[in-house]
What we know:
25% strand, PilZ domain-containing protein, 215 residues, alpha+beta
Amino acid sequence: MEPRGEQDRRQFYRITDQVGLELKKLTGDETLPADPFGDGHLSALMDELQRLDHDIRGNLATLAERDRLVASLIKSLNSRVDALARIMTFEQNPLQPEQWATVTLSEGGVAFPSEDSELVPGRRVAMRLTLPPALFRPSGILDIVSESRDANGLRILHGEFVSLDEGPRQQIARHVMQWQIRRRQQQQSEQAIPGTGTETGSAKRPDLNHNQANQ
């Protein structure tokens, strides 16, 4: 019988997209360090905003029963504050051009280009993604399970998340879903205009095995 984890990975949708990619090499079974990406000074602010967001979302249903208009306004304001916080956090610790890469992404893992000779199958890394346009920054621990070469000879590492909290996982899932929505809208627009139909990306169910992880 196939392990449940393998069954789950086969259900993940994957997309090819350009994202921010930050890596920190770990040793053995090392857990995620307290401040792996050097922006721990912002953690208190983000924790407080997350608590505020949780409190607001938890009370919106009750408030809507009393006054739907006020509930709608508070929901909109909360979304704007959340977006502003992500922008502020990103601007405090922006990425360099070389930290952006075209990757294949799903909830189960990520495949990314790298010529770093220290990153080999069996190596564990802490990874943080920056997902435009919302600028979500999910982070977790990734095991590199295989490597390959693309059509241009570029070395691609295939990684599998071994530690990813529910919040970051939901951010990745939301990004994948929104990417697919935008892609469908683009395809519909291209079909409505003769002479168009340029491919800009891909989204599909992966045919996974242990050697290809979920990418």
